[in-house]
Amino acid sequence: MNRTPAATGPLLVTILVFPGVRLLDVTGPIEVFTSADEFGGRYRLKLVSPDGAEVTTAAGTRLSVDMGVEDAHGTSDVLIVPGGPTWEQMVKDDALLDIVRALDTRARRTASICTGAFLLAAAGLLDGHRAATHWRYSGDLALRYPAVRVEPDAIFVRDGRMITSAGVSAGIDLALALVEEHWGADVARAVAKDMVVFMQRPGGQSQFSVHARASHTRLDMLRRVLDAVAADPGADHTLSAMARRAGVSPRHVTRLFRDEVGTTPARYVEQIRLEAARAMLESGDDPLAVVARRTGFGSPESLRRAFVRHLKVTPGAFRARFRTTATAGEEPSAVPAPPPA
What is the mean pLDDT of residues 93-118? Predict the structure, then answer.
């Protein structure tokens, strides 16, 4: 059922930009909102910088702005706070945090893209809220701001008037969700089709490298275990086998995983196997029985259950949606429109 449009418009979207901002965090939502105007939405976009001067993004591209913060009067329907690779310096910039707080007080809804969540958290705006950020930094967000309930696998999280997204392209997902909220599902679906993106992408951030997220540990014994699972997901990775590889007891292995990786040994193994199966489905034509055997799931049914549980999609549907249709030297086929939400 389509959601009844909540707006009559035009709606003001204020986007805060600053030196070192990530370009796609800004332009992704802009493309969504301007595209929505072609399908029945009505938005006014304002780019605001701290002093009204143009800013240079992390990519080296210069962005012109509409005004400085002091001239940004009135109430925004949406305030968007993008992120940047220098987030560790950003959260120490008291002047920038004051700007975020001031703009938030004049916004009906505040959104962050990627590491922009760190700015909201440092400003105290996410205390007591659930939130998302780029998978690589979700642990840092949870550690630095314990009052924030971080959801590391979410593409975006809505909690009250706050909405936060995962990394970079997830800002498009967030913006589409806002378009649906404002103007209904038909408008959001039209925008998604026009941009050739999913209106609601399957799965979460678990589709990104599990091993890369977990391998930060400084313990050699644990790193050997993590590397062995990633190198051969289909091998024997029972708790006892991992304990033998690490040279410690099974109970100690479980404690190391909890303290260093933030999950259980069994869940880590399943996530690695899921990632390996995903890669096989994206790039090859092996039957599901072969994929299941090589990645350690054993049977197509076990593979199917894991996909549905974690990615909300069957292996067959995943292959149909995500694998390329072109071979080397061929022109790629026309990309089909994303399925309806």
Answer: 97
